[in-house]
Description:
With 432 residues, the chain is α/β, with parallel strands linked by helices. The chain folds into 2 domains: 6-23 and 40-51, no CATH class; 53-431, Metallo-dependent phosphatases (Purple Acid Phosphatase, chain A, domain 2, 4-Layer Sandwich), CATH 3.60.21.
Amino acid sequence: MKMRWISMLFLCVILLSACNNSIRPKAVPAANMGEDASIDEISHESVTSPKPIEIQITAVGDVMVHGPQLKAQYDRISGQFDFHNNFQFIKPYIESADLALLNLETTFGGEEKGYSSFPRFNSPDSLAEALKTAGFDVAVTANNHTIDTGMDGVVRTLEVLQAQGFKTIGTRKSVEESRFLIEDVQGIKVGITAYTYETPAYGKNKTINALIMPSVLEPLINSFRFDRWKEDLSQIKSTIDAMRVAGAEIIVFYLHWGEEFQRSPNQSQKQIAQDLNAHGVDIIFGSHPHVLQPIEWIKHPDHDHQTLVVYSLGNFLSNQRYEILKNRYTEDGMLVHIKIQKDLVSNGTVISHVGYQPTWVHKYVRGGKRIFEILPLPQALQNPQVFHLSSSDAQHRAKLSYHNTTSLLQQELPGSMPFSGPKRKVHKNDIE
Protein backbone atom coordinates (compact mmCIF):
# COMPACT_ATOMS: atom_id res chain seq x y z
CA MET A 1 0.00 0.00 0.00
CA LYS A 2 2.84 2.34 0.85
CA MET A 3 4.63 1.58 -2.43
CA ARG A 4 1.42 2.23 -4.40
CA TRP A 5 1.02 5.62 -2.65
CA ILE A 6 4.63 6.55 -3.46
CA SER A 7 4.16 5.53 -7.09
CA MET A 8 1.00 7.63 -7.38
CA LEU A 9 2.73 10.61 -5.79
CA PHE A 10 5.66 10.29 -8.18
CA LEU A 11 3.26 10.14 -11.15
CA CYS A 12 1.46 13.29 -9.97
CA VAL A 13 4.78 15.14 -9.68
CA ILE A 14 5.69 14.12 -13.22
CA LEU A 15 2.30 15.21 -14.60
CA LEU A 16 2.46 18.52 -12.73
CA SER A 17 5.93 19.15 -14.09
CA ALA A 18 4.77 18.47 -17.66
CA CYS A 19 1.85 20.85 -17.26
CA ASN A 20 4.13 23.57 -15.96
CA ASN A 21 6.40 23.12 -18.99
CA SER A 22 3.49 23.43 -21.40
CA ILE A 23 2.32 26.79 -20.10
CA ARG A 24 5.68 28.41 -19.38
CA PRO A 25 6.05 31.51 -21.62
CA LYS A 26 8.51 31.09 -24.48
CA ALA A 27 10.47 34.15 -23.33
CA VAL A 28 11.25 32.59 -19.94
CA PRO A 29 13.99 29.94 -20.26
CA ALA A 30 14.16 26.98 -17.89
CA ALA A 31 17.26 28.40 -16.23
CA ASN A 32 15.20 31.38 -15.05
CA MET A 33 12.37 29.47 -13.38
CA GLY A 34 12.99 31.25 -10.12
CA GLU A 35 13.09 30.09 -6.51
CA ASP A 36 9.63 28.47 -6.66
CA ALA A 37 10.76 25.73 -9.07
CA SER A 38 10.68 22.34 -7.36
CA ILE A 39 13.55 19.86 -7.28
CA ASP A 40 11.29 17.31 -8.96
CA GLU A 41 10.56 19.72 -11.84
CA ILE A 42 14.24 20.50 -12.40
CA SER A 43 15.30 16.87 -12.29
CA HIS A 44 12.48 15.91 -14.68
CA GLU A 45 13.60 18.49 -17.24
CA SER A 46 17.19 17.33 -17.00
CA VAL A 47 16.37 13.79 -18.20
CA THR A 48 13.94 14.65 -21.03
CA SER A 49 14.94 15.46 -24.59
CA PRO A 50 16.10 19.04 -25.14
CA LYS A 51 13.42 21.43 -26.30
CA PRO A 52 13.51 22.38 -29.98
CA ILE A 53 15.03 25.71 -30.90
CA GLU A 54 12.41 28.09 -32.30
CA ILE A 55 13.08 31.34 -34.14
CA GLN A 56 10.87 33.83 -35.95
CA ILE A 57 11.66 35.37 -39.31
CA THR A 58 9.63 38.46 -40.21
CA ALA A 59 9.62 39.96 -43.70
CA VAL A 60 8.13 43.10 -45.22
CA GLY A 61 7.93 44.49 -48.73
CA ASP A 62 8.96 47.69 -50.46
CA VAL A 63 10.32 50.68 -48.56
CA MET A 64 10.11 53.74 -50.80
CA VAL A 65 10.40 57.48 -50.23
CA HIS A 66 8.43 59.68 -52.61
CA GLY A 67 8.47 63.46 -52.84
CA PRO A 68 5.66 64.12 -50.34
CA GLN A 69 7.47 61.90 -47.85
CA LEU A 70 10.68 63.87 -48.25
CA LYS A 71 8.77 67.05 -47.42
CA ALA A 72 6.96 65.41 -44.51
CA GLN A 73 10.11 64.06 -42.88
CA TYR A 74 12.12 67.27 -43.16
CA ASP A 75 12.51 69.26 -39.95
CA ARG A 76 12.94 72.95 -40.77
CA ILE A 77 14.34 73.74 -37.33
CA SER A 78 17.12 71.16 -37.36
CA GLY A 79 17.53 71.08 -41.13
CA GLN A 80 17.53 67.29 -40.96
CA PHE A 81 15.32 64.43 -42.16
CA ASP A 82 13.80 62.19 -39.51
CA PHE A 83 11.87 59.01 -40.42
CA HIS A 84 11.44 57.48 -36.95
CA ASN A 85 7.76 58.35 -36.63
CA ASN A 86 6.96 56.25 -39.73
CA PHE A 87 7.70 53.10 -37.75
CA GLN A 88 6.68 53.97 -34.21
CA PHE A 89 3.51 51.84 -34.19
CA ILE A 90 4.87 48.89 -36.13
CA LYS A 91 8.21 48.74 -34.31
CA PRO A 92 7.15 46.29 -31.54
CA TYR A 93 6.13 43.70 -34.12
CA ILE A 94 9.43 43.99 -35.97
CA GLU A 95 11.50 43.87 -32.80
CA SER A 96 9.76 40.66 -31.76
CA ALA A 97 11.39 38.82 -34.67
CA ASP A 98 14.72 37.05 -34.37
CA LEU A 99 15.49 38.04 -37.96
CA ALA A 100 13.65 40.89 -39.73
CA LEU A 101 14.06 41.61 -43.44
CA LEU A 102 12.99 44.42 -45.80
CA ASN A 103 13.29 45.43 -49.45
CA LEU A 104 14.96 48.85 -49.74
CA GLU A 105 13.57 50.27 -52.97
CA THR A 106 15.66 53.41 -52.96
CA THR A 107 19.35 54.32 -52.79
CA PHE A 108 21.59 56.31 -50.49
CA GLY A 109 23.53 58.17 -53.15
CA GLY A 110 24.36 61.12 -50.92
CA GLU A 111 23.02 64.63 -50.42
CA GLU A 112 25.28 66.07 -53.12
CA LYS A 113 23.32 64.14 -55.77
CA GLY A 114 20.10 65.74 -54.56
CA TYR A 115 17.33 63.82 -52.85
CA SER A 116 14.76 62.54 -55.30
CA SER A 117 11.95 60.03 -55.82
CA PHE A 118 10.46 58.41 -58.90
CA PRO A 119 11.83 57.68 -61.43
CA ARG A 120 15.26 57.72 -59.73
CA PHE A 121 15.22 57.35 -55.99
CA ASN A 122 17.82 58.89 -53.69
CA SER A 123 16.89 59.11 -50.01
CA PRO A 124 18.52 60.69 -46.94
CA ASP A 125 20.89 58.46 -44.96
CA SER A 126 18.73 59.00 -41.88
CA LEU A 127 16.20 56.53 -43.32
CA ALA A 128 18.72 53.74 -42.74
CA GLU A 129 19.10 54.71 -39.10
CA ALA A 130 15.31 54.81 -38.61
CA LEU A 131 14.90 51.38 -40.20
CA LYS A 132 17.58 49.94 -37.95
CA THR A 133 16.01 51.53 -34.88
CA ALA A 134 12.69 49.97 -35.92
CA GLY A 135 14.29 46.55 -35.53
CA PHE A 136 15.28 45.39 -39.02
CA ASP A 137 18.36 43.23 -39.48
CA VAL A 138 18.72 42.54 -43.20
CA ALA A 139 18.16 44.90 -46.14
CA VAL A 140 17.61 43.72 -49.71
CA THR A 141 19.37 46.03 -52.16
CA ALA A 142 18.64 44.24 -55.47
CA ASN A 143 15.61 45.70 -57.23
CA ASN A 144 14.73 47.78 -60.26
CA HIS A 145 15.97 50.98 -58.55
CA THR A 146 19.36 49.60 -57.52
CA ILE A 147 21.36 51.72 -59.99
CA ASP A 148 19.27 54.90 -59.76
CA THR A 149 22.30 56.84 -58.49
CA GLY A 150 24.92 55.01 -60.53
CA MET A 151 27.70 52.70 -59.52
CA ASP A 152 28.93 54.92 -56.72
CA GLY A 153 25.35 54.98 -55.42
CA VAL A 154 25.28 51.17 -55.33
CA VAL A 155 28.45 51.09 -53.23
CA ARG A 156 27.48 54.01 -51.01
CA THR A 157 24.07 52.48 -50.28
CA LEU A 158 25.80 49.38 -48.94
CA GLU A 159 28.21 51.47 -46.87
CA VAL A 160 25.39 53.49 -45.28
CA LEU A 161 23.39 50.39 -44.42
CA GLN A 162 26.37 48.45 -43.08
CA ALA A 163 27.46 51.42 -40.97
CA GLN A 164 24.08 51.16 -39.23
CA GLY A 165 24.65 47.46 -38.55
CA PHE A 166 22.59 46.04 -41.41
CA LYS A 167 23.45 42.85 -43.23
CA THR A 168 22.82 43.34 -46.95
CA ILE A 169 21.89 40.98 -49.78
CA GLY A 170 21.43 41.35 -53.52
CA THR A 171 24.39 43.61 -54.25
CA ARG A 172 28.03 43.61 -53.14
CA LYS A 173 31.01 45.93 -53.26
CA SER A 174 33.42 43.46 -54.85
CA VAL A 175 33.42 40.01 -56.45
CA GLU A 176 35.36 38.73 -53.43
CA GLU A 177 32.24 39.18 -51.31
CA SER A 178 29.61 36.44 -51.21
CA ARG A 179 26.30 36.59 -53.09
CA PHE A 180 24.52 35.36 -49.96
CA LEU A 181 24.43 35.47 -46.17
CA ILE A 182 24.53 32.65 -43.66
CA GLU A 183 22.99 33.94 -40.45
CA ASP A 184 23.31 31.76 -37.35
CA VAL A 185 20.11 32.61 -35.49
CA GLN A 186 20.10 30.93 -32.07
CA GLY A 187 21.67 27.81 -33.55
CA ILE A 188 19.71 27.66 -36.81
CA LYS A 189 21.73 28.59 -39.90
CA VAL A 190 19.57 30.63 -42.26
CA GLY A 191 20.86 31.16 -45.80
CA ILE A 192 19.57 34.34 -47.46
CA THR A 193 20.03 35.82 -50.91
CA ALA A 194 18.16 38.17 -53.26
CA TYR A 195 17.80 38.61 -57.03
CA THR A 196 16.14 41.23 -59.21
CA TYR A 197 14.84 41.04 -62.75
CA GLU A 198 16.62 42.89 -65.54
CA THR A 199 15.04 44.85 -68.37
CA PRO A 200 15.91 44.02 -72.02
CA ALA A 201 19.58 44.35 -72.92
CA TYR A 202 20.89 47.42 -74.74
CA GLY A 203 23.24 45.87 -77.23
CA LYS A 204 25.68 43.83 -75.13
CA ASN A 205 24.89 45.75 -71.97
CA LYS A 206 22.58 44.57 -69.22
CA THR A 207 19.98 47.06 -68.04
CA ILE A 208 17.91 47.57 -64.91
CA ASN A 209 14.85 49.78 -65.25
CA ALA A 210 16.13 50.60 -68.76
CA LEU A 211 19.32 52.08 -67.25
CA ILE A 212 22.54 50.65 -68.67
CA MET A 213 24.47 48.66 -66.10
CA PRO A 214 28.21 49.44 -66.32
CA SER A 215 30.12 46.24 -67.14
CA VAL A 216 32.13 46.55 -63.93
CA LEU A 217 28.84 46.56 -62.01
CA GLU A 218 27.28 43.51 -63.66
CA PRO A 219 28.90 40.87 -61.40
CA LEU A 220 28.06 42.91 -58.28
CA ILE A 221 24.28 42.74 -58.72
CA ASN A 222 22.31 39.50 -58.41
CA SER A 223 20.02 39.67 -61.43
CA PHE A 224 18.25 37.60 -64.07
CA ARG A 225 16.22 38.10 -67.21
CA PHE A 226 12.80 36.58 -67.68
CA ASP A 227 13.53 35.76 -71.31
CA ARG A 228 16.70 33.87 -70.47
CA TRP A 229 15.67 32.44 -67.14
CA LYS A 230 16.89 28.94 -67.87
CA GLU A 231 20.41 30.20 -68.58
CA ASP A 232 20.46 32.45 -65.50
CA LEU A 233 19.12 29.62 -63.36
CA SER A 234 22.43 27.76 -63.66
CA GLN A 235 24.25 30.61 -61.88
CA ILE A 236 21.49 30.86 -59.28
CA LYS A 237 21.71 27.12 -58.69
CA SER A 238 25.45 27.49 -58.00
CA THR A 239 24.57 30.07 -55.34
CA ILE A 240 22.09 27.65 -53.76
CA ASP A 241 24.71 24.87 -53.77
CA ALA A 242 27.24 27.20 -52.15
CA MET A 243 24.74 28.10 -49.44
CA ARG A 244 24.24 24.43 -48.63
CA VAL A 245 28.00 23.85 -48.50
CA ALA A 246 28.28 26.86 -46.16
CA GLY A 247 25.89 25.13 -43.76
CA ALA A 248 22.49 26.66 -44.55
CA GLU A 249 19.72 24.62 -42.93
CA ILE A 250 17.01 26.61 -44.67
CA ILE A 251 17.33 28.80 -47.75
CA VAL A 252 15.45 32.09 -48.14
CA PHE A 253 15.19 34.01 -51.43
CA TYR A 254 13.96 37.56 -51.97
CA LEU A 255 12.89 37.97 -55.59
CA HIS A 256 12.06 41.25 -57.30
CA TRP A 257 9.67 40.01 -59.97
CA GLY A 258 6.11 40.09 -61.27
CA GLU A 259 3.91 42.81 -62.75
CA GLU A 260 3.26 46.09 -61.03
CA PHE A 261 -0.21 46.54 -59.50
CA GLN A 262 -1.36 42.98 -60.33
CA ARG A 263 -2.79 41.06 -57.35
CA SER A 264 -2.11 37.64 -58.87
CA PRO A 265 1.25 36.10 -59.75
CA ASN A 266 1.98 35.74 -63.45
CA GLN A 267 3.23 32.64 -65.21
CA SER A 268 6.88 33.70 -64.96
CA GLN A 269 6.65 33.98 -61.18
CA LYS A 270 5.06 30.55 -60.96
CA GLN A 271 7.70 28.97 -63.20
CA ILE A 272 10.58 30.58 -61.31
CA ALA A 273 9.11 29.47 -57.99
CA GLN A 274 8.78 25.90 -59.26
CA ASP A 275 12.37 25.88 -60.53
CA LEU A 276 13.71 27.20 -57.22
CA ASN A 277 11.62 24.63 -55.38
CA ALA A 278 13.24 21.92 -57.51
CA HIS A 279 16.65 23.16 -56.38
CA GLY A 280 15.76 23.13 -52.68
CA VAL A 281 14.81 26.72 -51.87
CA ASP A 282 12.58 26.74 -48.80
CA ILE A 283 11.08 30.23 -48.59
CA ILE A 284 10.52 32.84 -51.32
CA PHE A 285 9.58 36.44 -50.52
CA GLY A 286 8.43 38.49 -53.51
CA SER A 287 8.55 42.22 -54.10
CA HIS A 288 7.94 44.73 -56.93
CA PRO A 289 4.18 44.50 -57.72
CA HIS A 290 3.48 47.17 -55.02
CA VAL A 291 0.32 45.28 -54.08
CA LEU A 292 -0.14 42.10 -52.10
CA GLN A 293 -0.26 38.75 -53.84
CA PRO A 294 -1.21 35.34 -52.39
CA ILE A 295 0.84 33.06 -50.20
CA GLU A 296 1.00 29.37 -51.03
CA TRP A 297 2.96 26.16 -50.62
CA ILE A 298 4.25 24.61 -53.82
CA LYS A 299 5.55 21.11 -54.38
CA HIS A 300 7.50 19.67 -57.29
CA PRO A 301 5.73 16.73 -58.98
CA ASP A 302 8.91 14.61 -58.87
CA HIS A 303 9.84 15.00 -55.20
CA ASP A 304 8.41 15.87 -51.80
CA HIS A 305 10.24 19.15 -51.14
CA GLN A 306 7.83 22.00 -50.45
CA THR A 307 8.46 25.71 -50.71
CA LEU A 308 6.56 28.55 -49.05
CA VAL A 309 6.01 31.32 -51.61
CA VAL A 310 4.90 34.83 -50.70
CA TYR A 311 4.39 36.12 -54.23
CA SER A 312 4.32 39.77 -53.20
CA LEU A 313 4.69 41.45 -49.83
CA GLY A 314 3.27 44.71 -51.20
CA ASN A 315 4.30 48.18 -50.11
CA PHE A 316 5.52 48.66 -46.56
CA LEU A 317 6.16 52.41 -46.81
CA SER A 318 5.35 54.66 -49.77
CA ASN A 319 3.17 57.46 -51.07
CA GLN A 320 1.47 55.24 -53.63
CA ARG A 321 -2.11 56.02 -52.74
CA TYR A 322 -5.60 55.94 -54.17
CA GLU A 323 -5.62 59.70 -54.79
CA ILE A 324 -2.61 59.32 -57.09
CA LEU A 325 -2.96 55.89 -58.72
CA LYS A 326 -6.71 55.24 -58.33
CA ASN A 327 -5.65 51.93 -56.82
CA ARG A 328 -6.40 51.30 -53.16
CA TYR A 329 -4.38 48.10 -53.02
CA THR A 330 -1.06 50.00 -53.10
CA GLU A 331 -1.84 51.19 -49.57
CA ASP A 332 -1.98 47.62 -48.24
CA GLY A 333 1.03 45.88 -46.77
CA MET A 334 1.82 43.08 -44.38
CA LEU A 335 4.37 41.53 -42.10
CA VAL A 336 4.81 37.83 -42.73
CA HIS A 337 5.90 35.90 -39.63
CA ILE A 338 7.47 32.50 -40.12
CA LYS A 339 8.49 30.38 -37.15
CA ILE A 340 11.23 27.81 -37.66
CA GLN A 341 11.86 24.92 -35.30
CA LYS A 342 14.96 22.76 -35.08
CA ASP A 343 14.83 19.40 -33.30
CA LEU A 344 18.08 19.10 -31.35
CA VAL A 345 17.89 15.29 -31.38
CA SER A 346 17.28 14.67 -35.09
CA ASN A 347 18.62 18.08 -36.27
CA GLY A 348 15.50 18.27 -38.44
CA THR A 349 14.40 21.84 -39.25
CA VAL A 350 10.77 22.67 -40.06
CA ILE A 351 8.43 25.60 -40.47
CA SER A 352 6.25 25.35 -37.39
CA HIS A 353 3.95 28.30 -38.09
CA VAL A 354 3.12 30.85 -40.81
CA GLY A 355 1.22 34.03 -39.99
CA TYR A 356 0.66 37.46 -41.48
CA GLN A 357 -0.18 40.85 -40.05
CA PRO A 358 -1.90 43.43 -42.28
CA THR A 359 -0.47 46.95 -42.29
CA TRP A 360 -1.68 50.24 -43.71
CA VAL A 361 0.16 53.52 -44.32
CA HIS A 362 -1.80 56.29 -42.61
CA LYS A 363 -1.24 59.69 -44.22
CA TYR A 364 -2.80 62.69 -42.56
CA VAL A 365 -2.16 66.32 -41.62
CA ARG A 366 -1.38 67.48 -38.09
CA GLY A 367 -0.44 71.04 -37.25
CA GLY A 368 -0.16 71.91 -40.92
CA LYS A 369 2.36 69.11 -41.54
CA ARG A 370 1.87 65.81 -43.39
CA ILE A 371 2.37 62.69 -41.31
CA PHE A 372 3.10 59.16 -42.53
CA GLU A 373 2.68 56.26 -40.09
CA ILE A 374 2.61 52.53 -40.73
CA LEU A 375 -0.24 51.05 -38.70
CA PRO A 376 -0.63 47.44 -37.52
CA LEU A 377 -4.10 46.16 -38.31
CA PRO A 378 -6.47 45.23 -36.70
CA GLN A 379 -4.88 46.67 -33.56
CA ALA A 380 -5.25 50.22 -34.86
CA LEU A 381 -8.92 49.67 -35.64
CA GLN A 382 -9.53 48.40 -32.12
CA ASN A 383 -7.85 51.48 -30.57
CA PRO A 384 -8.24 54.25 -33.18
CA GLN A 385 -7.35 57.17 -30.92
CA VAL A 386 -4.14 55.53 -29.69
CA PHE A 387 -3.06 55.02 -33.31
CA HIS A 388 -4.06 58.54 -34.43
CA LEU A 389 -7.03 57.28 -36.48
CA SER A 390 -9.11 60.26 -35.48
CA SER A 391 -11.11 60.90 -38.65
CA SER A 392 -13.97 58.76 -39.92
CA ASP A 393 -12.39 58.75 -43.40
CA ALA A 394 -9.11 57.35 -42.06
CA GLN A 395 -10.96 54.67 -40.10
CA HIS A 396 -12.94 53.73 -43.21
CA ARG A 397 -9.80 53.42 -45.31
CA ALA A 398 -8.03 51.39 -42.66
CA LYS A 399 -11.02 49.02 -42.45
CA LEU A 400 -11.05 48.71 -46.23
CA SER A 401 -7.33 47.92 -46.27
CA TYR A 402 -7.82 45.27 -43.61
CA HIS A 403 -10.64 43.72 -45.63
CA ASN A 404 -8.58 43.80 -48.84
CA THR A 405 -5.72 41.95 -47.21
CA THR A 406 -7.66 39.35 -45.27
CA SER A 407 -9.96 38.54 -48.20
CA LEU A 408 -6.95 37.99 -50.45
CA LEU A 409 -5.10 35.82 -47.94
CA GLN A 410 -7.97 33.80 -46.45
CA GLN A 411 -6.67 30.41 -47.41
CA GLU A 412 -5.49 27.45 -45.41
CA LEU A 413 -1.74 27.61 -44.88
CA PRO A 414 -0.27 24.50 -43.33
CA GLY A 415 2.27 25.66 -40.80
CA SER A 416 4.50 22.63 -40.91
CA MET A 417 6.27 21.79 -44.08
CA PRO A 418 9.50 19.88 -43.41
CA PHE A 419 12.93 20.71 -44.72
CA SER A 420 14.76 17.74 -43.26
CA GLY A 421 12.71 16.53 -40.33
CA PRO A 422 9.35 15.01 -39.42
CA LYS A 423 6.11 16.85 -40.05
CA ARG A 424 4.62 18.68 -37.11
CA LYS A 425 1.17 19.87 -36.22
CA VAL A 426 -0.59 21.79 -38.97
CA HIS A 427 -1.78 25.30 -38.14
CA LYS A 428 -4.22 27.52 -39.94
CA ASN A 429 -2.72 30.84 -41.01
CA ASP A 430 -3.82 33.58 -38.66
CA ILE A 431 -3.43 37.28 -38.13
CA GLU A 432 -0.88 37.90 -35.42
